[in-house]
Amino acid sequence: MSRTSYREALREAMREALARDPRVFLMGEDVGRYGGTFAVSKGLVDEFGEQRVRDTPLSELAFVGAGIGAALGGMRPIVEVMTVNFCLLALDQLMNTAATLRHMSGGQFSVPLVVRMTTGAGRQLAAQHSHSLEGWLAHIPGLKILAPATLEDARGMLWPALEDPDPVLLFEQGALYNVEGELDETEVVGIRSARVRRAGSDLTLIAYGGTLAKALEAAEQLAGEGISAEVIDLRVLRPLDDATIMESVRRTRRALVVDEGWRSGSLAAEIIARIVEQAFFDLDAPPARVCSAEVPTPYAKHLEDAALPQVPAIVAAARGLLGR
Amino acid sequence: MSSVPYPAEFAVTLLRDMLRIRRMEERAAELYGEGRIRGFLHLYIGEEAVATGALHALEAGDAVVATYREHGHALLWGVPMDAIMAEMYGRLEGCCHGRGGSMHLFDAATRFLGGNAIVAGGLPLAVGLALAERMQGGRRVTACFFGDGAMAEGAAAESLNLAALWRLPVLFCCENNLYAMGTALSRAQAQTDLAAKAAAFGVPARAVDGMDVVAVHQATRLAAKQVRAGHGPVFLEYQTYRFRAHSMFDPELYRDKAEVESWRQRDPIKGYAARLIADGLLDASGVAALEAEAASEVEAAVACAEAGSLEPVESLLTDVYTPERQP
Fold it and tell me: Which branch of life, at top level (chain A) (predicted)?
């Protein structure tokens, strides 16, 4: 165990990857001299030079596309997009090229690209820097979507993502960067499955990224009321790990999804649809969800808080599932 | 009319390849009419001198990124006509097993990277391929074809800047046929001098007569040499014209028949054949022989496509992701 932060864990993962494989390089806006918008890449340019830690112009479409091209050309690029809202400027390349190329070409090309971006609210950055759009991207066949919520995943997901032959999008919840804790260096981090972060028997809370800590806190409160909540950390948003979800839900017979995305057409909706399709007859209550309010994320703290899934709402929804 | 500055064999090869593209596409248009080919089909007829002159100026191993009007580029870059025709038929024998169709021809073996049906979508990709080449210390050029319409896209502006900024080995090949689908260049872009537009990004640029295969070849050879030497990207604007409709659904309401006719007078194949004959590099029977060759290649390709098989529906989902390696 060692003391670290989510930010430092992400940085250490990049440092390791850059040191380990000469094909790996990092590019994005202000990743070099500035040290990264959120200081994730701080110091890396001094260690690895400007060829491998490349500052780009404000051209998301071109540098994400260039990441795809570089991946096709034999490199292992890590492309940093400042926030998920900005990745909309590059959506054409992500959707129309990265995700389609292998299938469309009859299996001739793989795109071993990793794109990292910040997602989520909680820092009063308002309506153009705060959304959780990973659910949209998780709609796209051909992409793999990761959401590290723990220090171990922040430290451990990058390398397997780089080893993956297909495009992987890694969503870092911005509010987590300063979270500190003890990193369990013995945990084996894969990028295939969800994990049960807390065992329980009365209901299953399904969360990821920025909502995991809230779900765990809710579970703790529920425990005080004699309700045993299991907490699943999805970790991989595409492809979804149905097996872990269903195993848990069949056992607890109740499911509550906590998703920072908007409710309509959300990842939460997809998960609940799957639970209904696969575990309907094991359920004791209709599956429920706590999502963000369907508004552009507001700036003022009290409004932002009100727009996001919060612990009291999770606890209340959980009680509701148990008829309490 | 200047004389053709090449030995007979190469001089004739240029004509042969233009003819191969023309006859393949004329047949494709017929097959479209017969319902054998579906989807969108964009013909390159009229523009053959560009792909032919340009691709003959590159070296094996260079990468080629093209557009949805790319049958000719694929053919000359080494994709067999059989595989192109079978792809248009949606057959397993197609270069992409029938998954891509006319607009998405790919060939990993020759580094032919599409077949991109998003206008300007290929430019960032080409920049990345060139970046990888540079970072790995290679000398290969990435040639990226796109039309005048692409020059209105943000992707083009961003890509030209990035390639110039990082001095990457990209050869930007702008096929200016004056129309972005049905919108004339002058109705879409305030700066219609596309070479000037590229130059504004710090990319050395020049315009070339795209109806003259020799001019295209010579300009491209020079440009490719400069790119290969590590002097950064070069932009060539090939001034050309599409004789046929944008696609098979286009009633051509946006341009005069007289304009089309005047460009047809500059047909790159007829004009070049006449030059070869005038220079004594070929005679009428030589032209007839090339025609016969092209016709038989086309008919063989059609036969291959007709006899082709269909990818089993069971494999619909394969290659959305890369299959896992067996331990």
Answer: Bacteria
Q: Which of A140, A161, A183 is the last residue of a domain?
A: A183
pLDDT in tens, B42-75: 999 999 999 999 999 999 999 999 999 999 999 9
Radius of gyration of chain B, Cα coordinates, nearest whole angstrom = 19
CATH number reported for the structural domain that contains residue B256 in this entry: 3.40.50.970
Q: Of residues A8, A29, A80, A129, which has the active-site annotation?
A: A129
Average pLDDT value for residue range B239-268: 93
List chain B residues with CB under 8 Å of A102.
Answer: 319-322
Mind telling me how many Å the CA of A35 is from chain B's nearest CA? 20
Residue from A51, A97, A238 to probe the interface with B (highest B Cβ count within 10 Å): A97
- The boundaries of the domain holding residue A283 are 195-321
Look at residues A120, A151, A183 and tell me which one is the last residue of a structural domain. A183
Active site residue A129: yes
Are A65 and B133 inside 8 Å of each other by CB?
no
CB contact under 8 A, A69 and B116: no
pLDDT tier at A38 (50, 70, 90 boundaries)? very high
Neighbours of B1 (CB within 10 A): 8
Q: Which tens digits make up the pLDDT trace of A62-99?
A: 999 999 999 999 999 999 999 999 999 999 999 999 99
- Which one of A8, A60, A80, A270 is the catalytic residue? A60
For chain A, the C-alpha Rg in angstroms (whole number) is 19
Chain A: residue whose CA lies nearest to B106: A105
At residue B324, the pLDDT reads: 85
Model pLDDT, residue B327: 53
